[in-house]
What we know:
The structure is a homodimer.
Chain A: E1 2-8, H1 10-14, H2 20-31, E2 35-42, H3 46-60, E3 62-66, H4 77-85, E4 89-91, H5 93-105, E5 119-121, E6 125-127, E7 136-141, E8 144-149, H6 153-171, E9 176-184, H7 189-201, E10 207-213, E11 216-225, H8 228-246, E12 250-253, H9 258-269, E13 273-277, H10 283-289, E14 298-304, H11 307-313, H12 317-323, H13 328-342, E15 346-352, E16 367-374, E17 377-384, H14 389-412
Parallel strand pairs in A: 1-2, 1-3, 3-8, 13-14, 13-15
Antiparallel strand pairs in A: 4-5, 6-7, 7-8, 9-11, 9-12, 10-11, 15-16, 16-17
Helix pairs in contact in A: 2-6, 3-4, 7-8, 9-14
Amino acid sequence: MHLELVxxxxxxxxxxxxDTNSAFxxxxxxxxxxxxxxxxxxxxxxxxxREAVRDALGRSRLVLTxxxxxxxxxxxxxxxxxxxxxxxxEFHQDIWDELAERWARMGRKLGERNRGQAEVxxxxxxxxxxxxxxxxxxxxxxxxxxxxxPGVPTEMKGLLTHEVVPRLAARAGASVVRSRxxxxxxIPESTLAERVSDLEDxxxxxxxxxxxGLEGVDLRLTAWETSPGAAxxxxxxxxxxxxxxxxxxxxxxxxxxxxxxxxxxxxxRGLTLAVAESCTGGLVGTRLTEVPGSSAVFVGGMICYADxxxxxxxxxxxxxxxxxxxxxxxxxxxxxxxxxxFGTSIAAAVSGIAGPDGGSxxxxxxTVWFGFxxxxxxxxxxxxxxxxxxxxxxxxxxxxxxxxxxxxxxxGA
Amino acid sequence: MHLELVxxxxxxxxxxxxDTNSAFxxxxxxxxxxxxxxxxxxxxxxxxxREAVRDALGRSRLVLTxxxxxxxxxxxxxxxxxxxxxxxxEFHQDIWDELAERWARMGRKLGERNRGQAEVxxxxxxxxxxxxxxxxxxxxxxxxxxxxxPGVPTEMKGLLTHEVVPRLAARAGASVVRSRxxxxxxIPESTLAERVSDLEDxxxxxxxxxxxGLEGVDLRLTAWETSPGAAxxxxxxxxxxxxxxxxxxxxxxxxxxxxxxxxxxxxxRGLTLAVAESCTGGLVGTRLTEVPGSSAVFVGGMICYADxxxxxxxxxxxxxxxxxxxxxxxxxxxxxxxxxxFGTSIAAAVSGIAGPDGGSxxxxxxTVWFGFxxxxxxxxxxxxxxxxxxxxxxxxxxxxxxxxxxxxxxxGA
Lengths: 413, 413
């Protein structure tokens, strides 16, 4: 089973927006056994949209469009496709009422601008948009089928995942491509490649891709098989081998987030967490609280960006003067103070030089010290992370989470 | 002047690779006055490539392709296009010699597999690739022109910038496209559209695009003009009109970040900042400390995710019991305590229900209270933000920054 994708937006062609939607659509459909065989991107222009959809239907009979469904006047996909099918637009009171109610709950009032969002080409299936205002549309006719989704990524993803993929997957045949990701952190790509080199030689029909990012290197295994069961079995065996080889560097699978893995490990062991953050400025807390339900484990902590707040937390003036804010002694005092003051099982402290200024020969930009305190004492570590200010902070937050995870696992062992 | 882009690669359609090449091409060509009017992406399949290039030539006479020129894919694109033009491939000894020499310098030997990279369709212009092995090709014939570049980003960018853009720009004449973004926040897209509706009608040759995101709506103005000076003047006038209409909702231009704008406003006025974050869990601190040099203004603060830490900060038990953690009373006490304890000019407090659980009829998921304390007292505000947990937190952090900016400006006024 295959379809063509038409993405609509002048921004995409001017290059002001990177087309991440297409990658999401490609992956989500491939996982369900549906191949995107062509993608066409056209500007916000009714003629161009109509022509692209018509040509795609002519070739493939099934077309998915993204973009051009919002309330502003540069949104025109619905009109272009309705015209192509010769369908009048009909106002749906129920869509309007629901929209009005939702806005009312947020203390806002719908304007005339939004009226068009309740208009639907006659006979089209309406896909309810719980993530935004413009519903998705599924139009069927002599020309074939067009599924229209908004271009806003959260709305497109929600509708695709919950409304489109299940309907198409039910129709798709048996040939599937599946992939599984083994997520690693705290180990450089080249070291990783050396360590799994012999496993890689023995992969057989699978492919292995190294995907390095700020939070570590993802290893993606991909299998093209005749059945989901066969694909899953092959992938499972290969992923298990990689994980056994990589020890605690392999912290999860697929979309697993290290913060969520850590929180779960703590919950199982009845442990609580606090942080004291200097150079990360709240990023470790942000990562932890991004996970729903984190409040059962994470109590909070302090952002001690200025030295005055490190003193306020409980770092002795003498330590800051003698060793500096970026030192083993300071992170030890920060971690210990945070743990005692906030009454948690474990506390992490982070202090470093994120740059671009503030580096020296002894402590270059990228130098970050970590302290992990629990009932047994404080353990420290330090790294010099590469990259920009943003990169250094992201890598430091990820390492803080890995250090907490190691501490949590050994505490509970 | 315009062209069509054809990007070649199965991984693009499967979504394993995000198509950042297209964005680069769009921007680089637009800056030189050349519009990409359509982009087609096809898999590594000779028939699909031939058909896509043929159709694109039929519409536009000028086509740029990326991908399918490397040694591993058997020069699929080159064969497909040569066949389309009816041109034989000819072996170029000079390309081969240069390739062999380069490889020898790296201590490697060319294999038979690389021989195809020295083959060129008869009469094609060879674009020397200093960034890799496969040269670019520029084929001219009755069907029109095809410019073929490799898909590896560094090679594609090098060839496009140094070999393609100068040749096309020379033909494009004086026409340039420039754009300017007015960044807004705290105002929904449809309200924004109504408020600037009359300005939009009077835009003349400019186009206006609404780009909604979690941090607000960007308004992108684009001008196609005969000179950079003319474009800048038109854009400046239109951007100024939008800003005058939108007041403090328009906080910056282009890549401006609200956190950076806030920090600069504070620096000018000698103000310092602290935060007390509950549902954002450190995200406001993260936004502020992402900006280099933020330590001159931002001292840090507390992540009071658990109520115990709100009490530790200084929120009376009675307030938490009587009004709950998500209330005007609690954020007032949080903001006041943070300001006093950390000794800053202004402090912001954020407490809300980010979901997915924890909502009620009175306080649905998305409800967030804000407190802003300065020497004059505490001001509060609350919103019900739409979207996922991630969205709600991102919107809340952005609103906290906007509230701080308003407070900073009025303090200094």
